[in-house]
Peptidase M24 (Thermanaerothrix daxensis), 784 residues
Amino acid sequence: MSANRRLRVENLQALMAQKDLSALVCRLPENVVYLTDYWPHHGISVAVLPREGKPILFVPEVEQEYTQSEWAEVVPFGWGLLKDKELYENYRLLIDSVVASWNLKGKKVGAELSFEVVAPSYRIAEPVVPSGPWNTLLGEIFAESHLVDATPVLHEVRAIKTGYEIEKLRIANSIAEKAIQSTLKELKPGITETQIGALIEYKIRSEGPGFQGAKLVRAEAEVGAGPVGSTKGTLLVPSTTYRVQERDLVMIELATMVDGYFSDLTYMAVVGEPSPRQKEVHNALLEAQQAAARELYPGNSFEAPDRAAREVLKRAGLDTYFVHITGHGVGMRYHEPIPLLAPGAKGVLQEGMVCSVEPGIYIPGFGGLRIEDNVLVGANGPIFLSTPRQPW
Amino acid sequence: MSANRRLRVENLQALMAQKDLSALVCRLPENVVYLTDYWPHHGISVAVLPREGKPILFVPEVEQEYTQSEWAEVVPFGWGLLKDKELYENYRLLIDSVVASWNLKGKKVGAELSFEVVAPSYRIAEPVVPSGPWNTLLGEIFAESHLVDATPVLHEVRAIKTGYEIEKLRIANSIAEKAIQSTLKELKPGITETQIGALIEYKIRSEGPGFQGAKLVRAEAEVGAGPVGSTKGTLLVPSTTYRVQERDLVMIELATMVDGYFSDLTYMAVVGEPSPRQKEVHNALLEAQQAAARELYPGNSFEAPDRAAREVLKRAGLDTYFVHITGHGVGMRYHEPIPLLAPGAKGVLQEGMVCSVEPGIYIPGFGGLRIEDNVLVGANGPIFLSTPRQPW
């Protein structure tokens, strides 16, 4: 394992030492990816990290070939077939053996006790989340010990991306953008929102695997078009069977997942030629987005990018239509909590943070626009991981 | 609301009376769908059901137009924009007001305390699950009361489908089968497993919305082909970039979600003409699947369909390759726990249960086959909700 790859685990272990955590027990897919660089298929894998050394990855036999032994000691277990033990019997065996061999009795152990928003496992049709039974098991095993919520520590270390994650995020963004750009070439009156979104997802799913080493690739595209549909895109609004018309604004919100690493983009297009007003509004928004991005340097406040975007929109008379935040962390999840680029957000930007930069304006009767890129806080300022947009 | 629609909520309320539950508080998307026929987009909606009368559905403003007021009293709340309160502040206000107006202090209230496998909300890229913070809130509000795990009650009532659900499941299966059948016509050497799966998902996503009233449609297709790839399909195995060849077996595992109702199908195909041995094995498996389905009548045991399938395969000398269960419940989730068609499963089939019937055989060096349909336990025997297959 290269120094660059190992770095994120070492950073986490340094934090564990500070907090006196002797081990971490993780089941959320996003944390299993973080510790082992393996995106669980069924969501039942467990990663256990000691304060020093490699994690153990406990994984169903059928998934073993996707794991990476440079990252973790992989321990397969039978699951899902008639021959196999019950899942929780296996969980108990695994954790008991770790407690014994790492001598964890009476030590503080971190677990995921306070999540709600999570990244999916590869099998998006059926998430599996550690809830009641898992907490009961951990409570029984660590009764003599102290079970600590490791969520804050995990979010803190995940917020600073190493070169390895940054490269993965570039790949996810590249796969996403190729699909958007080739779909936009086919944009014409009569196609529905759902068809546009389905086409983007299709291209990502069919062409993503194999691209620069990507294996497991998924996408969710939601499209809102026209004066009404595009305005609804302030939050996730499902694509509808509305057929786009000449001069409609088209907003594409796209999550792309590549081996457990996420891209979060919003693209704007117009069917045919944009009107002068569409150009004017789009270009003011783009200016606001670029102004926000320019504030992404180490030591600047979480608030500064948001403030910069609002100032540009105020000068253009559009600030009252900008009703949401400017950005959020992105990487091991579609939305990560650090950093938060919003009015009143407390925090200081650090080199290695990656966030969405996505001011948006939603003008009743006219339409909604949002431009969203994924940007790294570099040592000397912003580094776009997606392709900066051009004025219309 | 028609009597048929209301029936499932009334059945649940009858069970609540038996268990002395004065109300249910649900957040899992599958239970919100069950109570209100609304598939949450972001996964943060709450459905609260009194022992008599309509549920209250607490839903983000942006999602309100998708809700159905015949099913529930819809209470929108602001979420996600700068103007909005924090989510948990709103949750507390909602539940406090319900406790006051329904006079729930000191009464037993059911909540989802022991799930792990869940159905996704529409936004599959980022599941939201009620975990630590939600349990803390419920614990604070119902401190004087008794908070009861309602999971068993919910699974029990969900296992018996009413005519309304059955119709929804037929639609989900129709959407799925149209996409599979049209994709299989395009099957030819050189196409990759990922491309086959992506094409099926594309057709479902682009053509599903609008079909017989369907609105929100998603799919996950995983394809395994050739002597190795098809054999791996015993569990979820991701599609790869393997290019199918003449005479390859192709196994398509497909989850289809339509407005919160699920279809779970496995289709088999051969690239070009099947070999005599492929035909022989396929047709023996089909005979086993049909034998299992014939056992789906009220009063029969959960074990009987599984036993029937194994007997047919034993006569064909193939039973040692049948390494998993015969079926599971399906409907409000990709996999529901009731009924379980497996060796040793305890339980009695009841009219209205819907399950997968999916014997499979996986022969090293030859390939794997599974035939999976969704079948209703009718008053007089099995009623296929998907299309019964034909011999090769």
